[in-house]
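sorry for the late reply, my laptop died twice this morning and i had to redo everyting from scratch. anyway the thing you sent over, i finally got around to it. pasting the sequence first so we're on the same page, its 309 residues, then the predicted structure underneath. double check i copied it right bc i was rushing
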Amino acid sequence: MQESPGTSGTPSLQDYLQLHFLVIIWGFTAILGRLITIPAVELVVYRTLLASILLGIICVYKKKEVRVGSSVTVQFLLTGGVIALHWILFFAAARVANVSVCLAGMATGSLWTSLLEPLVQRRKVRLLEIGLGIIAIAGLYVVFRFEFTHALGLGMAVVSAMLAALFSVINSRFAHIYDAQVVTFYEMMGACLSASVLLPVFSVLFYKGEPINLIPVAWDWLWIVLLAWVCTVYAYSMGVSLLRKFTPFAINLTINLEPVYGIVLAVLIFGEKERMTPGFYAGTAIILLAVLIYPLLKRFQTKNLTQNV
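ok and here's the structure:
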C-alpha cells in the first residue's frame, strides 16, 4: 500500500532495541548458512521462494494494495537481484572461510554506505561518516593481516557488504513511500528469479557439471524455514520499516555489531572451529569502535551546529 512520504523523525528507545534485535537475527543468519547443507545459490532460491510465498499470503490476508505500477515493479525486482547477489556471496563466504571471518567482512558496510548514500541521494559527503568508515577499514586490514588464509572468504564478505549497503540506500527511498511488506514481497520475488537464473551459471563455473546437492535434507528444511520466515520476512520487512526512523548509514553502522553477536553465537554452537587469532579480535574491536563513538560524535556535531546558529 502506498503511503505518503514524510520525514524520518527521532528514533525512540524501542526503535533502537528493535534494531539491535534485528542485528542479532542477522548475525544468526550466517550460522544457519553453515548448518544448511545445500550450496549457496540453491539456498538463496529456497529462502526467497518461501519468503515470497509467506509475504504474498500476508499481503492478501491484510488486504494490502500490491499494485505499484510497472516502472516501480521493475525497480523492486532489480533491487531484489542485488539482494540475491549479496546473499549468495554472504553464504559462500561463511563456507569458504567461517562465520567469524564472514561477519568481520560484513562490518565494512558502514564505509560503503558513507560512499554510496551521497551518490544515490545526491547530498554532500559527510566527513564524519567517511572517517568512521575508514576506521572500519583499518580494522578490516588488521583482520586480513592475521587471517590471510581466509582471504577469499573475506573478499567475498566485503563485496557482499558493498551490495548490502547499496540496497539499503535504495530501500531508504522506498521506505517513505511504500508499505514495507509490499516492498519486501517484490524484492524477494526479484531475488528468487535472479538466483534461479544464476543457478546454472554457478553450476558450470564452480561445480564443473558435477552432480550437486539440490534437495535439502530433513534438518535443512527447518533451518531454511527459519531463514526464510524469521530472518527474512520478519527481519527484512522490519529493517525496511526502520529506514523511516534511521538513516541507511546509522543502520549499517549498527550492523557492525553483527560480528559481536554472531561470533559469540558461532563459538557457542561450533566451538573450536570458530576460535580465531588475537589479531582477528583486535581488528574486530577496531571496527566496532566506530559503532560506539558514532552516536557521541554525532551528538557533539549537532550540538556545535546548534550553538553556531
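Confidence is low (pLDDT under 50) at residues 1-7.
thats about all i looked at so far, will dig more tmrw
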